[in-house]
Amino acid sequence: MLNGKLLVDAHVHLARTPTLKLGWERWVMNRRADGDPAELYDEQGAPVPARFVDYLDREGVDCAILLAEYSPRVTGIQSIEDVVSVARHDPARLRVAANVNPHLHYPVAAEVERQLELGAVALKIHPVHGGFPANARELYPAYAACQERGVPVIVHCGTSNFPGAVNRFADPIFSEDVAKDFPELTVVLAHGGRGWWYDAAAFLALMRDRVWIELSGLPPKKLPEYYARHDLERLGRKFIFGTDWPGVPGIRANAEAVAGLGFPDDVLAGILGGNAQLVYGLGSLVASAQPRGT
Length: 294
Prior knowledge:
Elements: E1 8-12, H1 24-27, H2 49-59, E2 63-67, E3 69-71, E4 76-78, H3 80-87, E5 94-99, H4 108-117, E6 120-125, H5 127-130, H6 140-149, E7 153-158, H7 172-181, E8 187-194, H8 198-207, E9 211-214, H9 223-226, H10 232-236, E10 239-240, H11 251-259, H12 265-279, H13 283-287
Parallel strand pairs: 1-2, 2-5, 5-6, 6-7, 7-8, 8-9, 9-10
Antiparallel strand pairs: 3-4
């Protein structure tokens, strides 16, 4: 918890280093407030679940969502099985998000169902690293499956500076098609339009009840600047806290920076944990968490 409020990091990359196409130096932010992430890994480059949970304790995190990613052209393949094996160490604290890539998975709906059966609470789509638009018709069966099951879809919506990234596919207009064609589907815009789409992402979140903005990869102190054309308090009611760890100074550092923006108490509580609790169905798992920080 952070000052008595639930803290959920909805965007964590706990990859095994042998699965990374990128070097460790590109993957991890070097200016840190939370120690060296390498200390959470064993000699073979695998995360040690107990060490990671201890890290979450120190950062005050009640729940973290670990992301799988199948993007061999850019970051590599972090399989759902890898993150599930970590999450099983503490299922009340660690949840996982599925990932599909239409260039790799066919039929996509079957692969989504398989990963959901492994315990995923959401489906992540990464158009920028996978090289496809979010409105690719090959993905529509996956969206239909998620809509039917009430599972949210996270869409990478922001630039990436990794080699091989296709940034034109970060445009929220592709996600708008998805939100229109699947009106009962919850869509989370990860990175909130990072780069040059902040206004588009904000308009989409304010226009559609089931569209949310996730703050991963955004320096919290810059949020008033990025969304200067919008009522930040109103927009904040659609924000979900996430960091893109380990590409940030630290989870607590980012959460404290969000808390310093002056949001009303109820809006801040939603941003830090309540909105994720609602969107990802974390309910009893998070509500039963005991305070672990201040």
